[in-house]
């Protein structure tokens, strides 16, 4: 390399090269050692078949344990033992999502090949916002878009899909498209310039907290969130919604966006989309559907009909990291009309005259998503889809919905359980009601049952408050869960309830503690 | 399990158990096979020492190749060959971040052990917003917060740190805290209620596009973004900034937030933080520092002084996935005053009376970050820190800054290169100026050089437009890059420039194409 002649650092360069070669060998060995160790731990975890929930540790205790694993040296090194200790602590403290005792939450273990791919895409990153850096990621977006377009029934080329990091971000992005479109000049002018009427968003009573939060974030204000009432199946009731929106309009609110749910967090309910699409149209409002949980029904011939009307939405999103079993976060955000995606975050005009750069710009997502650095998480979905095909996803999802329905039927037959809502998805709420208990005592009991069942470590349930009543809630994300596990869980609930009530009658009916439930 | 007696599905349950056991064995084998394959590919990649940039493929060609790898079957299966083909295509299409030819962008390969951990955390997820699901992740937040507090010099217990997914989100989150605090009632009331003065944000001319975008998103409006002028080192000039903000106030703007940079995207400049802190204080404005790129200087005794004044900021963020070499996205968002983090997205009051739930709530991040499902990416940083210690990070970062400075000194000595800004970080801009070329022709040449160098596949550079002049830009993220690589890259630039100018003089000075550069 003759350019080196100009440098007077030749000899130090040789040392440098030698050092980096040694370092490189070291790096590869270290990587291999760590990876093989991790595979062993994970394979072992996947092979286990114990019924486990979570083992909660007091934060102060866990802090001490974690602290003891941190090297005291200013410059440490790879230490296989320390690495194993950290892996062990991690796996020990996590929810046992691979166990049949896990019934608590909307996340799950993933299709194993996608976890492997996470390692690959961390080591050889393809940030996915721009084609230059994320060639395959941007192509995968287009291929998955095509696949889902067929399920939705939208003509190829007429719609568009953007992947983003989570439904919170997807819902906010869609709301921005709606705001920028319906509140003219809001992107540049802001909302502080006197609007004739105050902009407002209408959402269902059971909408996820991240949806109601959008109004606070994008400058609409939480007070301008109109809560639409639900029917007995906890779906938005279109007739009452119409009256409420009409009333809001009269009071000077401009309801520019209606956000419906396909799969509420609480019970997995699907709002009546055809009616809500008509309602939105009537008011010139944008219809967005938060289908984070149930949107995956699209891939199943059996379940797809439950999403009837989704094709009428202006936009909707689904979380592939929930019900398509790929690593978080992988959210697909769909717009019915192509060209709207880039109006969420309008940029100054970009000019491209080079045909090659043009082609690249046409497939890349940069100006359409919030992220600048974006993980190529769509590739996990594309990879699994390419290997396993549609039915692998559909089969698992159908099984989860089926076993949830079986759990419903099971509880219906139990005289000491109430199951108020027939499940539309893989989420089921129920109340354990021992004879003679009602009202607040019944609510407190459910909470205490959630706590005790969790503390016992075999099952993990969640809880939800609906109509002033605390209920237990299961989300079945693990298709190895069978009816025997449901029955086992019910038996455990009864046992704890017996203990609690016996203890209470001894103590003279002390109040049970009130707890905080993380919302999902 | 006697509860099973009540079920009439006993026999089908037995079949079910058998099926899931078989499936489980299959799953483990598949996982192992895929993981071992991936390790081999990655170890091979890490061992290579070729000088490579990126091999760009036309989207239409890549689409065809990717499509051919998708199973045609409705139900496929794990196919080691197909998996290998996909891995190969992925690695082939990515930027060769592990090569000495990669000088283009702000992302890099990661510390190998963190890539391994990505596989673990995908397979056994600990969503990090809530303690129940992410015990270790939430503890790691506290431990890393403690470590960085010492570097910043903030007293333990007085400040607070939240991890989030990317600096775009961190910057927006901090801006919301500022807005909610200074524009009273904006979270609930929105911005459409007549403010006495229009809220505005002041940012530097070189602020990242995601920063200027915040005003559009949170309802302030892009027109209310005040651009502060820069000095010759492309840092915000405090004196001129003061005059501009004073002028804006007179015109009815309420500048409630000032966003400075520590490491601009363009050239890595650090704004003068002590002066800007004083300026913000004078106007009662919030000072946020986007230290996405240079914030990592905190870990180095040598580089930390370059961040003087950062401790005066109300908030700042840094991207551990940039200059702390962990997988994207891992952003640390710091607030000088504890208790403010939860005012970004104010929630309805939560009540917790159970002491154990209280302890858990105290360490968890749920109400403080935008995400609901949040990857436990802080664990990558905590893991690497626990194994390797501070100096592993500091050494690498110092080496990158040192070699960038050497590259500057090298170019200074080349008569046909202009290097307008002495680097403060690992980013360097320069212009190749063959004799007789200036103005638009010089800009066009730089762009064409970027394109040709990229197309040749050995080096990857980026480009940037500053003061109407297109410049070439390198970001050194790979510490194996040495001066010989810089010299090699310069030689390649000269060769392409020779070709271009020869070709031009033959053709009679046709206009060179104008291209789109992805912003980082």
Automatic annotation (TrEMBL), chains A, B:
GO CC field: cytoplasm
* Keyword tags: Decarboxylase, Lyase, Pyridoxal phosphate
Keyword field contains Transport: no
Where does the source fall among the domains of life?
Bacteria
Q: Which GO terms of the molecular function aspect are on file? A: carboxy-lyase activity; pyridoxal phosphate binding
One of the Pfam families matching this protein, by short name: Pyridoxal_deC
- Where are the annotated segments for Disordered? 501-520
Q: Which residues carry this modification: N6-(pyridoxal phosphate)lysine?
A: 322
Family matches, as Gene3D superfamilies: 3.90.1150.170, Type I PLP-dependent aspartate aminotransferase-like (Major domain)
Q: Give GO terms for biological process.
A: carboxylic acid metabolic process
Which cofactors? Answer: pyridoxal 5'-phosphate
Please indicate if the UniProt record lists tRNA processing as a keyword.
Answer: no
Q: Which family does this protein fall into? A: Belongs to the group II decarboxylase family.
Q: What is the designated name of this protein?
A: L-2,4-diaminobutyrate decarboxylase
Question: Top-down, what is the taxonomic lineage of the species of origin?
Answer: Bacteria, Pseudomonadati, Pseudomonadota, Alphaproteobacteria, Hyphomicrobiales
